[in-house]
Amino acid sequence: MNGLARKVLGYVGASVALLAGWWLIALWVNSPALPGPWIAFVTFFEQWPIIWPHILISAARVLAAMAIGTALAVPLGLMLGRSPRADAIAAPIIFLTYPIPKVVFLPVLLVLFGLGNLPKVALIALIVFFQILVTARDAAKAVPEASILSVRSLGASRFDIYRHVIIPASLPDIFTALRIGTGTAIAVLFLAETIAGSDGIGYFIGDAWGRIDYPAMFAGIIGMALLGVVLYEALDALEVSLTRWRRTAK
């Protein structure tokens, strides 16, 4: 059985287990607030023409935020990991600001940037930035000095060391941080779109919730779960493509 077949089989098995659990809990609760999976999926397919534009808007926001956060955090984290002097200055600032829940800045971002896409993208980018910054810094710091010295002895420049040693060694940890950040980003996006939004899958769920339309609410939750799976699998495929040496080494 190849990797794709194993992955599909895994998703099928997990879906069956989740749907069975959902169905049993719905029977036990017996409340309109928790419809069974059949009602939710029927509603999902009925409202698909309404749901998918919201999913696309949310996906665009998450992708833009993750791209911005990654582009800023990776170079800075790698530099801090390999520069003790710069790290001594920046580390206290990072340690003081990293534990602060970034979602508390949403009101400030709404005041600064309005109710459009910008505050939502900025909030997610801020969260992803810190997660990747800390991971990239620690990964770069953990690169063995022997690996760097062996490349330097061959005449490698600082750029060559980053390109051939530090970046490849740090990539797996950075992708792990990105995968963790994906779940956080979608959770925060739901909050931002519910509080201050007129579109996006978070707004769709919040709007259905406000109308006490629970089947539509769960249809939106299914859409959000699909968004998460697609983003997660895209990151997985990108990691496989950019870290081929790991498969070769196994």
Topology:
Layout (H helix, E strand, L loop, with lengths): L2 H27 L7 H10 L1 H35 L1 H14 L8 H8 L3 H25 L3 H8 L5 H38 L5 H10 L3 H29 L1 H6 L1
Helix pairs in contact: 2-10, 3-4, 3-6, 3-8, 3-9, 3-10, 5-6, 6-8, 7-8, 8-9, 8-10, 9-10
Can you describe this structure?
This protein has eleven helices and no strands. The chain is an all-alpha fold. Helix 6 (117-141) runs antiparallel to helix 8. The radius of gyration is 22 Å and the shape is globular. It starts with a helix and ends with a helix.
Q: Give the low-pLDDT segments.
A: none
Rg, Cα atoms, Å: 22 Å
| Sheet having the most strands | none
| Structural class computed from helices and strand pairing | mainly alpha
Query: Could you spell the SSE succession in H and E letters?
Result: HHHHHHHHHHH
N-C termini distance:
18 Å
**Helical stretch count?**
11
State the share of residues found in helices, binned by percent: over 70%
Overall mean confidence score, pLDDT = 86
Shape: globular
Task: Report the portion of residues in β strands.
Answer: under 5%
What is the tally of beta strands? 0
